[in-house]
Amino acid sequence: MFERLGRYVVHNPWKVIIGWVLAAAAIVIFAPSLSDVTNTDQANFLPGSYESIKAQELAETSFAQANDSSATIVVRRTDGQPLTDSDQTTVGALAQKIQSATIERVTGVATGPQALSPNKQVQLVSAGIEGMPDDPKVLDAVQQIRDVAKPAIDGTPLTLSVTGDVAMQLDNQDAFETAFLIVGIATVVLIIALLLLIYRSPIAALLPIVTVSVVSAISPGLIALVAKATDLQVDQSLQIILTIVLYGIGTDYILFLLFRYRERLRDGDDRKAGLVTAVARVGEVIASAAAAIVIAFMALLLAVFGAFKSLGPALAIAVVVMAFAAVTLVPAVVSLLGPKVFWPSKSWQRTPKGSAFRGIGRFVGRRPVVVALASGGVMVALALGSFGMKADYDQTAQLPEDTESSQGFRDLQSGFPAGALNPTIVYVRSDDGQRLDAAVVEGFAQRLRQVPGVGGIMPAGQSGESAGMSQDGTAAQISLLLADSPYSNEALDLAGDKLRDVAHAEAPPGTTALVGGATSIFADVRDANDRDLRVIFPVAAALIALILGLMLRSIVAPVYLMVTVVLGFFSTLGATVLMFQGIGDRPGLSFMLPTILYLFVVAIGTDYNILMIARLREEARLGNDPRTAAQLAVEHGGPSVGAAGLILAGTFASMMLGGVAFLSEMGFAVAIGIGISAFVMSMFLVPSLTALLGHAAWWPGHGDVPGDEELPADDRSPVGAAAS
Questions:
Q1: Which of 299, 304, 454, 671 is the most buried (most CB within 10 A)?
Q2: Residue pair 622/710 in contact by the 8 Å Cβ criterion
Q3: At what angle do helices 2-11 and 13-30 cross, to 10 degrees?
Q4: Which residues are listed as membrane-spanning (predicted)?
Q5: Is the link from the previous residue into 344 a cis peptide, with omega within 30 of 0?
Q6: Each residue's pLDDT tens digit, 575-631
Q7: Do residues 690 and 697 lie in contact, with contact meaning Cβ atoms separated by under 8 Å?
């Protein structure tokens, strides 16, 4: 199949190129934007069966302002002293100035003695905003509040910061936009530099950039079309992840093709015949590798957490488009350029006499027991660190520390319980539609106040009552201020467990109590995430093993290949725990990180295993004994795996420049994971295990037995010879 495809592409390059250009233009013009399906509200990613979502639905039906947002202006003295009466008067004037500015969507601004902290070091100004936090006009309103508020305290001993959910989202959006720009530039520069080092050719270095640019124009539109058709909403981190994935795997696939094409030219093939052969041989490897990634990504459809459910199909679409481009668009361009793709370097004309990979291959072939124990031992040692992982749901910790909302949260904690940033709201609803007894609800609120971990109750009105009643009196809401940060694991434990137990047990007769608010939502997100990890990982592993089994016609090889991939996942997680929780002294890793590692380390690690096992099988089919096959597989397949791993790890490492904690963790973790997969697992552990197992590795088939369909003896590599 790939030979026929290669023949058509190589001999009809302009048709292929024009087809890609027309497709890209049509999608860019007519398809929706990825931003149209992007969502930043974690609650929208949870099914309606979770308590926090039921509470949110109750709020929307019973309280008119449930769909509204707010901004919290935190005011304190620059010298850290208590606020004086004059300072409090200034804060009151500040609130009046914001109110009189008639900012669009701002419904009211309030402060006063009840907004002064018990130690008098902090006073809050609350601004109600009509609309949900993901509404662009709501974000604009927060920015205008900042613009109006700051000049109002010029010349005073006061300082202020605007914080809260909307302000955090605004700062988060700005941080991700900046990170996207930095990461994009760093990725392109890194890829060009590494490819110049490998090929010594500006044309070969720019080819992935041009190709990925075309795919990057097509993929977001296709993803948006599918998302709209299936009602999927994607997380805001998708755009950055998508960029890294396309540049990373795109460069990998193009490397495999160019390595192979260069080898065929060195062996004396005609420029077009050599390219057809390269597409035929590399096409199967790319298709198998892409299929493994796509199946791993699509396993996320089993997730109940919507951010993961949409992330899998979105990235799978991008991988399919990139793989198709690698076997059509890239060969079409190379067909027009011929050997000039390597200009001005002349190294493609001569075969390297020796390389470091030859020495590595010789060592692996001669000492497979030592190599297996050493490489496996390193991975096991790193994997032990994964037992210490703690999941972090703290959204404030994900922002750069110099953002205004982060500073505001720190200032707020100097005078109020940390939970004041985002109160946990307990809703009480009458089961029979009768009006609630205000005194009974007040008693219920006081019982909630006694739950360990609850720092206080936010007054519902000027008179200081604890519960706010709905207009028809059939529902009430009680705003609890937790002692810990609303996103901390301690707060999540409280809102998702003990507080719910007390609220359900102590609810007044004839009523139902539901715990809502951001902390309750993240408690449910944590439960959904834990469930997804337990379901997705085994299913994905089984599906990937099935692909390997079909490709290799073996049961044994897929089993130990998947064992090495799973070990690679845990060793990567362990190394990341040691770096960030150990050396970095962070309270935990982002809760999304294990799934991200699954996406890339497991899926792409399988890619490298496929490349190496394909080479091992081919060498065995050429009549080499298992140890010699391992030696030659590392010698000839190692350079392409090493180059691909280096580039992919480098592209992910560039995410550490973005200034966002989650991106830094992901960049480091995936870079380390790819490094382990390419340079430890695929280059040492898999070849040594295959050498030790010998013919048994291919049981019950005969994948290592030469057949009529085998390559000629001079066709030495499925992906190419050593880089020079």
A1: 299
A2: yes
A3: 90
A4: 12-31, 178-199, 206-227, 239-261, 282-308, 314-337, 368-389, 535-552, 559-583, 589-611, 641-662, 668-693
A5: yes
A6: 999 999 988 878 888 888 888 787 777 777 777 888 788 888 888 888 889 999 999
A7: yes
Q: How far apart are CA 312 and CA 643, in angstroms?
A: 26
- How far CA 331 is from CA of 246, 249, 483, 608, in Å, comes to 18, 16, 61, 22
Exposure of 334 by Cβ count < 10 A (0-12 exposed, 13-18 middle, 19+ buried)?
Answer: buried
How many CB atoms neighbour CB 84 within 10 A?
12
| Residue positions counted in the chain | 724
Reading the block at residue 312, the tokens are 């899998």
Contact between 594 and 577 (Cβ < 8 Å): no
What is the number of helices (H) and of strands (E) in the chain?
A: 25, 13
Sign of CA dihedral 501, 396, 535, 572: negative
Q: How confident is the model at residue 40 (pLDDT cuts 50, 70, 90)?
A: low
- Confidence class of residue 570 from pLDDT cuts 50, 70 and 90? very high
Task: Output DSSP code: residue 118.
Answer: T
Measured between alpha carbons, how far is 562 from 606 in angstroms, rounded to an integer?
Answer: 8
Tokens 């019950």 belong to residue: 700
Tens of pLDDT, residues 165-184? 788 878 877 777 777 777 77
CA 41: distance to chain centroid?
16
Mean pLDDT of 546-562: 84
Structure tokens at 195: 């490819």
